[in-house]
């Protein structure tokens, strides 16, 4: 791990003294910055720093960026646990609020790799012309069209983006991955694939192949998959230390101006949180600060999964379009969430129970995007 720490320290030093730096390659994970996104960015950047592919300038500094503020990163117990237990100090990481993409694009030759996403958010759009590689495992966005003559794109349906990162790394037989980094890859794959539970159907063939390879090469305990998954899941689900507004901020993706927070608590229970700023008040504030007409909440806990659509008076039409798409997901996308509407005491909130829990936010996002694009174009 020491060599990785030294590499990350050197990256921060270079960013603080850019006078003699001309080429910068950014490796950027998605805006929720879960362990898959975070670990993928660090591991592939460290690999490219040692084994420079042809498409990255030889003298470029390779910068893995945690796509969240430093404060926001600390909301994620699972990330912090994984790095702390494997000896990676959090202060050597580069966070989104510590790097100015706009300034770099203006003054330097910037290239970029996207991991665990393939559509840039509004705040990262400045990198659009800089992107030369994409590694992602989520369903391909039909509205996204990279120039394949310029951008190396690998979008493959697997349980974890870390699987694609590991597959890339282990193509190089000369690359010696230390056990601590290998364990970070392994733990992330096990977590994302839900310990390869047959019921979850999350893990794919390549995920299983990589997990078994890591177990054999590094003597990781195959029988301990379930315990490892449950430990990380408990850490991820623990929001007892967070205020309601921080629960919303902890794992939010924004699609066409619509924030979609995912929470380890049911929507009803979140809205009923009390204190100086209760759940509902925090939601109103969150919508205002996000300048959002609608916020779509995804909440799950104790075998229950719910969707909440909060809308401002100006967002009522958008809410109706989102609701229509969600209730008719089978017609539009071929998969059925089996939503049923629930009663709620809260103003400007539509509450849905999700009968089919197989589908996640990944399947929710395309429906919201279609509705928002329809509203914006209308």
From TrEMBL:
* Gene Ontology, cellular component aspect: cytoplasm
Pfam families on file: DHHA2
DHHA2 domain: from which residue to which, for each copy?
A: 229-372
Instruction: Select a single GO molecular function from the record's annotations and give it.
Output: exopolyphosphatase activity
Q: InterPro entries given for it?
A: DHH_sf (IPR038763), DHHA2 (IPR004097), DHHA2_dom_sf (IPR038222)
Tree of life domain: Eukaryota
Name the protein family. Belongs to the PPase class C family. Prune subfamily.
The protein's name in its UniProt record: Exopolyphosphatase PRUNE1-like
Species lineage, top-down?
A: Eukaryota, Metazoa, Ecdysozoa, Arthropoda, Hexapoda
